[in-house]
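DEPOSITED CHAIN:
***
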Amino acid sequence: MIRSEKIAAPAPVPTSTAGGYRPGYEVAAERVLEYVVREGLQPGDRLPTEKDLAEEVEMSRTVVREAVKILSALGRLSVQKGRGIYVSEPGHSSWQQSLVNFLPADLRQVDELFEFRRHLETTTAHLASQRATPTQVKAVREAAQQSTQAAQQGDIDAFTLADEAFHTSIAAAAANTFFASTVEAVRRLQRQVTTIGLAGVAGGSLHVAAEQHEAIAEAIAAGETDRAEALMAEHIDMTAQQFQQKIWRRVIPGDESS
């Protein structure tokens, strides 16, 4: 695979530096991972041959061979004899297992999902109010406005899309890859709750949710961290309660006690 621009190779790794000794294979491993990201390689994609990879990262084949062994042991690469070097498929982690075993109509699991969402998204709202760029603030505001328009028209599908855009825009504005990817994973689970647990019916008042979106967007735009966090907590709590009530009524038809 050819790329148009190579990163400059650092000076040869010394046996000791002000920061301590760093073996060459560690530098090579770092560069190989940077190559994977830079080239946009995904799980299952094949890397260049060992020789070509050494040229790409501008280090010796011996050092790159050691780096590949380490990355393979860490689960980042997969070396398949006679076939080549590949980006590893994700392992079967406890987080992935929770996604596989999630039951969108199980009230206890829905409770746990929203409990997690509350901690996650109050943090992203807090960080977004500190870190959001003008472009990101605009994206959050536009998503909030779109949710308001959809609520006024009673368009559930349009509101759902605006709601997705609103929450993911805030996660992006938090400027932390881990928060952004986790919010997206949690949103996928909530879509399951809406589709399966609620049979596609909205989990509560669109108008109230849209008003909360607008307030959160303004708090983020104003850099009001505590207010953004508090408003997001209120929003998640209200949404959780509405989802819980809808699911409970589907489990026990005619029950209006909760």
